[in-house]
TrEMBL record:
Stored SUPFAM superfamilies: CheY-like (SSF52172), PP2C-like (SSF81606)
Keyword annotations of the record: Hydrolase, Phosphoprotein
Name under which the protein is recorded: Fused response regulator/phosphatase
Positions bearing 4-aspartylphosphate: D66
Length: 417
């Protein structure tokens, strides 16, 4: 005949540590006998307080506790158990002869996971423990996954911290490429402002001497944002080297080693050819480049997809220049055009990126060219860094904050010749 308690003969591969709590030594013995046969690590306690002392010394995975005990009942002990600091979840089974719904609700409210009727049946005990093992196993898996996620997050935070550190250094490098915030000579005053939408951006502006009487002023904007755009701006900055004509795209040498100055449209065409022939990136850029004669004010300019340059002063108002032109780095052999105009005494020439005119307010409206014209007319008596600061102030009011959504740069040339 088969043993009705045959389940007793099947050992468990579990390494769970189980605590049996009952003020009856006989009841503890009955339950513990089964648990020992199943291979669990076993602890016994005659009261809730004794059980708490054991919990303070040993890592217990599962508790089987009698309901009715002197001094501290099973539900009260369960409540105290739930207050203990633990790394892993502890599964709690109440042994009880109670069956009223109110009693069951009380046990659940105190933190019990399951109930087992007394007298204890071996098969039912084994089934309840198996259920607890599954819960603990899932909890352990979650704990391990959480630990892995926490470790991965810590690594991500570390990498982000390193990247932020590198980006801050890159931001400092990018700012070092810019000209001084203000340059004043007998014939002109040059000011600029640069605000990146992140640590680094794709805007670049600058100036360099072409001859003693001619100066180049430019503004360019690389498509996209972030590191890739900033890297291209650094490369382009090297093409406008102010100290080395051999590495400055504005100059070309003949067979004798003499240098001549390229026309603005030739510079745009050379950039276009170089970017398409030697770069695998899909980035492109826009450019406004001015060749200014400091004696006469005669200026030659190319506009390659860049926002319209403007001339303004307090007498003549605001005038937009150029006809747009194609960006650089999109179409091979596309033609660019040089156009000319004359700067008069007190004229201001403003080159800027589209972060200015394409700035949006909270309603989604763009500042646009008309909005910029209004700002310039409102501050037509300002000049230099003060004027650029006024522009940024009005732009902040328009956008209702200083997050303009894009890099913002502008360079202001004021002619006093």
């Amino acid at each position: 005949m088969q043993n009705p308690n045959f389940i007793d003969d099947i050992p468990s591969e579990s390494s769970l540590s189980v605590l049996v709590v009952d003020d009856s030594r006989l009841q503890r013995k009955l339950v513990s006998t089964h648990l020992k046969k199943w291979g669990f690590t076993l602890h016994e306690a005659a009261s809730g307080q004794e059980a708490l002392d054991i919990l303070d010394q040993h890592p217990i995975d599962m508790i089987l506790s009698d309901w009715v005990m002197p001094e501290m009942s099973g539900p009260e002990f369960c409540q105290e158990f739930r207050k203990l600091p633990r790394e892993n979840y502890g599964y709690f089974i109440l042994l009880t002869s109670k069956s009223e719904k109110g009693d069951i609700a009380e046990g659940l409210e105190k933190g019990a996971d399951d109930f087992l009727s007394k007298p204890v049946n071996a098969a039912e005990l084994r089934a309840r423990i198996k259920a607890g093992e599954r819960i603990l196993s899932m909890q352990q898996e979650l704990h391990l996954e959480y630990a892995k996620t926490t470790a991965a997050l810590a690594e991500v935070n570390r990498v982000n911290a390193e990247m932020t550190k590198d980006l801050i250094q890159a931001e400092k490098l990018q700012h070092s490429l810019l000209p001084a915030a203000e340059i004043i000579t007998e014939t002109y005053r040059l000011s600029n402002i640069f605000k990146s939408s992140g640590h680094v951006g794709g805007d670049l502006l600058g100036t360099f001497a072409l001859t003693e009487d001619r100066i180049a002023v430019y503004s360019l904007d690389v498509s996209g944002h972030g590191v890739s755009s900033a890297l291209l701006t650094v490369q382009l900055n090297g093409q406008f080297s102010p100290h080395d004509r051999a590495n400055n795209i504005a100059f070309k040498s003949d067979l004798k080693g003499d240098y001549t100055i390229r026309e603005p449209h030739e510079i745009a065409a050379a950039f276009n050819h170089h970017l398409l022939a030697h770069s695998d990136t899909e980035l492109y850029f826009t450019l406004a480049y001015a060749d200014i004669n400091l004696k006469t004010g005669h200026t030659k300019m190319v506009q390659a997809g860049h926002p319209f340059p403007v001339i303004f002063n307090h007498n003549t108002g605001v005038r937009r220049l150029g006809e747009g032109g194609p960006p650089i780095g999109l179409i091979p052999d596309v033609p660019f055009e040089t156009f000319s105009f004359d700067l008069n005494h007190d004229d201001k020439l403003l080159l800027y990126s589209d972060g200015l005119t394409e700035c949006q307010n909270t309603a989604g409206d763009l500042l646009d060219d008309e909005g910029l014209e209004t700002i310039l007319l409102n501050h037509q008596n300002s000049s230099g860094p003060e004027l650029l600061a006024d522009i940024v102030w009005d732009l902040t009011e328009f956008a209702e904050g200083d997050d303009f959504g894009d890099d913002l740069s502008a360079i202001l040339f004021e002619f006093s010749g």
